[in-house]
Specification:
Shape: elongated
Helix content: 25-40%
Number of strands: 5
Distance between the termini: 29 Å
Radius of gyration: 24 Å
CATH class of the largest domain: Alpha Beta
Length: 173
């Protein structure tokens, strides 16, 4: 069910913001929530949840990155990662494999810009497909994946080179 925070606040138990906006969960929303409702943010700094409005209340640490905020009426609200990005505060952030792929993407882009700087104007570009596919290729062993190389006949049929790139520039993985 998709609804508004005004409607969800009094009935929900777990609230996860992921909007990239501010004041998505306000103090008024939190006042309406159940005792020990959980609030956390995966979208944007600590401004999606109106954390500053809770600073005057008692905060009791349950364990690192898990706090109960005690309202004047005794109701408690569980706040994860102090309203900051929960995947970084309460977990290990992005898995190392994702970070490796992301950093490899950035390094190959920098090498491309350095070695072929004359091809590029000062603007934003999508990473060329052959480099995007190179990032994936470099990570196949970690996944235990092996790919069959295309035969010339298969490559001709698809209209690609045997070494790739295997998808047209407009294709989004």
């Amino acid at each position: 069910q998709v609804t508004t925070m005004d409607e969800a606040a009094p009935i929900g138990d777990i609230f996860v913001t992921a909007t990239g906006n501010i004041d998505v969960i306000t103090l008024d929303h939190m006042r309406q929530m159940h005792d020990r409702a959980i609030v956390c943010n995966i979208g944007h700094f600590d401004s999606e949840i109106e954390i500053g409005a809770l600073r005057n209340y008692v905060w009791e640490e349950v364990k690192p990155q898990v706090d109960e905020v005690v309202f004047p009426d005794g109701k408690r609200l569980i706040v994860l990662a102090k309203g900051r990005l929960v995947n970084l505060g309460c977990a290990t952030g992005h898995p190392s494999f994702v970070m490796s792929a992301s950093f490899t993407n950035q390094v190959l882009a920098q090498i491309e810009l350095w070695t072929n700087h004359g091809k590029y104007e000062n603007k934003v570009y999508v990473l060329p497909k052959h480099l995007d596919e190179k990032v994936a290729q470099l990570h196949l062993d970690k996944l235990g994946v092996k790919l069959t190389s295309l035969t010339p006949k298969q490559a001709d049929y698809l209209g690609v080179a045997t070494a790739g790139p295997f998808k047209p520039d407009y294709y989004r993985y």
